[in-house]
TrEMBL record:
<keyword id="KW-0746">Sphingolipid metabolism</keyword>
<dbReference type="GO" id="GO:0004758">
    <property type="term" value="F:serine C-palmitoyltransferase activity"/>
</dbReference>
<dbReference type="GO" id="GO:0017059">
    <property type="term" value="C:serine palmitoyltransferase complex"/>
</dbReference>
<dbReference type="GO" id="GO:0005789">
    <property type="term" value="C:endoplasmic reticulum membrane"/>
</dbReference>
<dbReference type="InterPro" id="IPR024512">
    <property type="entry name" value="Ser_palmitoyltrfase_ssu-like"/>
</dbReference>
<keyword id="KW-0256">Endoplasmic reticulum</keyword>
<keyword id="KW-0808">Transferase</keyword>
<comment type="pathway">
    <text>Lipid metabolism; sphingolipid metabolism.</text>
</comment>
<dbReference type="Pfam" id="PF11779">
    <property type="entry name" value="SPT_ssu-like"/>
</dbReference>
<comment type="pathway">
    <text>Sphingolipid metabolism.</text>
</comment>
<keyword id="KW-0812">Transmembrane</keyword>
<protein>
    <recommendedName>
        <fullName>Serine palmitoyltransferase small subunit B</fullName>
    </recommendedName>
</protein>
<keyword id="KW-1133">Transmembrane helix</keyword>
<comment type="function">
    <text>Component of the serine palmitoyltransferase multisubunit enzyme (SPT) that catalyzes the initial and rate-limiting step in sphingolipid biosynthesis by condensing L-serine and activated acyl-CoA (most commonly palmitoyl-CoA) to form long-chain bases. The SPT complex is composed of SPTLC1, SPTLC2 or SPTLC3 and SPTSSA or SPTSSB. Within this complex, the heterodimer consisting of SPTLC1 and SPTLC2/SPTLC3 forms the catalytic core. Within the SPT complex, SPTSSB stimulates the catalytic activity and plays a role in substrate specificity.</text>
</comment>
<dbReference type="GO" id="GO:0007029">
    <property type="term" value="P:endoplasmic reticulum organization"/>
</dbReference>
<keyword id="KW-0443">Lipid metabolism</keyword>
<dbReference type="GO" id="GO:0046513">
    <property type="term" value="P:ceramide biosynthetic process"/>
</dbReference>
Amino acid sequence: MDIKNMKNYLYWLFCQFELITCSYLMEPWEKVLFYTFNITMLFMVLYTAYIYVPIHISTAFQFCLHLFGNQHENTVSIVK
């Protein structure tokens, strides 16, 4: 895919986004507010997923290990 086709494809995607959200009907200042709000929400969701999803996966994994009877890593076993 060359640069010109990629540029046209991205422009097409942006036009589709404007059609779906009806933002092509907005005035420029409304578009600025709308896009700012959407970008802020997107970054907040991505940040929350980055912070909390690994913690929940780790907790679920530890719970599954506990269910199957495996010992925790910090358990000291005496073998003498």
